[in-house]
Amino acid sequence: MSFSELYESELSNGRWENSPKPAQHQEGEPDTSVACSPSSVFSWEASHPHLLPLSSQNFLTLDLHGDPRESYPHTPMVIDGVVLPKTPEELQAERRLHTVPYMVGFKKKEFGCFLPTLMGYPLSEGKLNQKTAMSLLWKSYPFVHIPKELIPEAIEKYLGGTDDPVKKKDLFLDLMGDVLFGVPSVIVAGTTKEHASTGPEKGLCRTFLH
Predict the structure, then answer these.
(1) Residues of 167-200 as b/e, b for ≥16 C-beta within 10 angstroms?
(2) How many domains does the chain have?
(3) Nearby residues of 78 by Cβ (< 8 Å), 6 or more positions away
């Protein structure tokens, strides 16, 4: 059963009776109404104890204890056949996306600001050793999807050039930034450039990497 079907079922059974009615608004003004109230969310959770409670999900939080392959710190993409008939990668490869101007890129220290703290990375001491770096990268699997057997090689490639634990910490953050932001940006930019050089949008794409 899809979420929309489940929602309609719950609505017909009166489980969402606390949901406020959509507010009336004048044409041309933004609609500020909400879909449900907090009380209705908790009511829905109470009636579905077999599902993960919406209020207790630790979004974007690193799990340092469990198996990272079984951790889901963010909402997964849903290929519903309507909004997303296929994955974005497949749609882009088939050129089934609207042509719109956009900018894609990343900065030098993409993972070096508030993200490590927000996501619970234990880096408050400002230093890191090789063994801990490998453990943290493996625990980051839900975000980076690097297989366990490739962890040592990746860590050696980025951190192997220094024995300074402070520099190792900075290099680990560089690794995370590259995997989470740099590589996806380059892939999207490269695919878009390739399509624009051969398709009807030929000459309209400008790709800059700095």
Answers:
(1) ebbbbbbbbbbbbbbbeebbebbeebeebbeeee
(2) 2
(3) 84
Are 62 and 49 contained in the same domain? no
For tokens 């059974």, the residue is 13
pLDDT of residue 11: 52
Residues 41 and 68 reside in one and the same domain? no
Whole-number pLDDT of residue 195: 61
What does R_g of the chain's alpha carbons equal in angstroms?
22
Do 29 and 67 reside in the same domain of the chain?
Answer: no
Distance in angstroms (rounded) separating the CA atoms of residues 190 and 194: 6
Domain range holding 29?
1-56
Report percent pLDDT > 70 for the chain. Answer: 63
Residue 204 has pLDDT above 60, yes or no: no
**Per-residue three-class SS string for 55-97:** HHCCCCCCCCCCCHHHCCCCCCCCCCCCCCCCCHHHHHHCCCC
Pick the more confident residue, 102 or 172: 172
Q: What share of the chain is helix, strand, coil (3-state, %, to 5)?
A: 45, 0, 55
